[in-house]
Design goal:
Layout (H helix, E strand, L loop, with lengths): L9 H7 L7 E4 L6 H9 L4 E6 L2 H10 L6 E5 L5 H7 L5 E7 L4 H5 L24 H7 L2 H12 L4 H14 L5 H11 L2 H5 L6 H12 L1 H15 E11 L2 H15 L19 E3 L9 H6 L7 E7 L8
Parallel strand pairs: 1-2, 1-4, 2-3, 4-5
Antiparallel strand pairs: 5-7, 6-7
Helix pairs in contact: 7-8, 7-11, 8-9, 12-13
């Protein structure tokens, strides 16, 4: 199956980057190359560094952009982009794009183990390296599992589900996606099973985040991206759930914070100035047309900021 991903908020994201033909850009989550292609189409003498941790994605974009002199493709987590950019001679860039979360290809390829709709090995590794979701559910205590479900899935029935997993694995290891989905279904109240949506959705989200260390990588990636931006450069981030969006919103708010002197001070003595400004005050959500065409975009939000200076104390 070819690596494909339907980019959400596509035109809004590309427009937000204010692409220049001679600019330097980073797509930190290349996926199938949809955003990267749009950036490359705008370049003449500029450069685009496309990064992804998934070897399938890297293979796909390498084939897609072969021979394009503006394209550089590297396999890495976007949290490593500062190192990778330096290795490629990109000390400062005009824009960075991050499209956070699991791709359509990963969801729709059963053997990757991200989906509860088809039976497959319980994997969920975006990099295809390291511990799998099966490793977690078969080795952690119920208390540790419940903590993951609460923190990363905001699952109200985390305790019951975690205890259900531990009981089930005493009979046999939990090794497939449908095994886990059935355990979750059996562990939650009947009212939850009758409610719209699959009762295992938050459990699968939580395990995927834990397996891939997604929230830590996001925090690191935001700092790396901002450090690489030139003054005037833009960072565009698409998130797909509240945990991701909260991190992005708070980090951009920190960069946009100015004077912290008490309000009764007649003049500023801290000297602190905003390092960034928001392009969209509340972020952008998909419109009705996009929601009809791509229901998976429903939870997406785009946040964009412009870098003003490197340090809050710079003139």
């Amino acid at each position: 199956m070819e690596f494909q991903h339907i980019p959400v908020l596509f035109h809004e994201t590309i427009d937000s980057l204010q692409l220049r033909p001679d600019g330097f850009y980073i797509d930190g989550t290349a996926g199938g190359g949809g955003h990267s292609q749009a950036i490359l189409d705008a370049l003449t003498t500029g450069k685009l560094l496309s990064i992804d941790q998934d070897p399938d994605a890297v293979a796909a974009v390498t084939r897609r952009f072969a021979g394009n002199p503006c394209s550089i493709v590297r396999r890495a987590n976007f949290s490593e982009m500062a190192r990778v950019a330096r290795e490629e001679g990109l000390e400062r860039v005009d824009g960075v794009l991050l499209d956070i979360g699991v791709s359509s290809y990963q969801l729709d390829t059963p053997e990757r183990g991200f989906s509860y709709h088809t039976d497959a090995p319980l994997d969920m590794r975006m990099s295809q390296e390291g511990r799998t979701a099966a490793d977690l559910v078969n080795s952690l205590s119920w208390q540790e599992l419940a903590d993951i479900l609460r923190r990363f899935g905001e699952e109200k029935h985390a305790r019951a589900i975690a205890q259900g997993i531990v009981r089930a694995r005493e009979e046999q290891p939990v090794e497939t996606t449908l095994q886990l989905a059935e355990i979750v279904k059996a562990s939650v109240p009947a009212a939850v099973r009758r409610a719209p949506g699959h009762p295992a959705r938050q459990t699968f989200q939580a395990l995927r985040i834990a397996v891939n260390g997604e929230l830590d990588r996001l925090s690191e990636g935001l700092d790396a991206a901002f450090s690489l931006l030139k003054p005037g450069g833009r960072l565009a981030v698409i998130t797909f759930h509240s945990l991701e969006d909260r991190i992005v919103k708070q980090r951009m708010a920190e960069w946009c914070e100015g004077c912290t002197c008490p309000p009764d001070f007649p003049v500023c003595v801290c000297g602190k100035k905003p390092r960034a400004e928001l392009v969209y005050k509340k972020g952008l959500a998909p419109g009705e047309d996009e929601l009809r065409e791509n229901p998976r975009s429903r939870s997406a939000r785009l946040r964009v900021c412009t870098k003003l200076r490197d340090s809050a104390l710079d003139p």
